[in-house]
What does this fold into?
Amino acid sequence: MRVQEEVYGVGPEQLRVFIHYHPQFYHLHVHFTRAHVNPGCEAERAHLLSDVIQNLEGQDDYYVRRTLTHRLRENDPLLKALRPPE
It folds into this structure.
């Protein structure tokens, strides 16, 4: 993680690194943001990369056994698809 320091002048202690996964974007991706910036990293929508690594180091099938909760917005198409017809 030297690149962010060399290019942007942001040290590792200033970073928040988190991932998003299904159902928000339907593929795993990693975000690097400054620690004081908060968009997109609410508890129900993101997982700190350090937590994910620690969980997998402790138990390699951690996410096979774990149910992940995800908050959906009222207008989210996935929420509409999951709701029973009225």
Observations:
- The helical segments are 2-8, 49-58, 62-65, 77-82.
